[in-house]
Amino acid sequence: MTLPPALIIQVNDRVTDCLSLAGQRLGDDFPPPRVCFNQGGRIAGSAWLERWELRFNPVLLADNVGAFITEIIPHEVAHLVVFARYGKVRPHGREWQTVMRSVFGLEPSTRHRLDTHKVAPTFGYDCGCRLHRLSLRRHNKIQRGQSRYLCMHCGKLLTLAE
């Protein structure tokens, strides 16, 4: 998916602003990372620490600009900042949570709540007590006879819903 140039500039500017804010609040200087728009699947963004690179999902970005600007970009920048200051630590550990709160004023959250139906189709499976949504990978495993899944609530076998 090709993003409009103005949106790419907006994301890059937000990354720069987040790093600048982190530098001011922490008394550090962080170089600009490489910013890519090649993240796939249901993942909104990822930080590649050793490469000093951020990757964003172009489909989710185009549909959720506000969430990216306010939450997802600071989330990923926080990973880079923590890596620069502390090295390899737990991805969403105490250091990352502190940066999210003290630098960006955000409550740390490890998962986004974006609608991913465009990037990750799901399949309905029934157990008798509720409808379950399974990923394409799990659906294919069931279809090939490689896996069976049971409902965690009633314990019955999941079958493809009609």
TrEMBL record:
Q: What is the originating organism of this protein?
A: Zobellella aerophila
| SprT-like domain mapped to chain residues | 13-161
Identify the NCBIfam families for this entry: PRK04860.1 (NF003421)
Name of the protein: SprT family zinc-dependent metalloprotease
GO MF? metallopeptidase activity
**Alphabetical keyword list:** Hydrolase, Metalloprotease, Protease
Keyword Lipid metabolism: yes or no? no
Pfam families found in the cross-reference section = SprT-like (PF10263)
* Annotated SMART domains: SprT
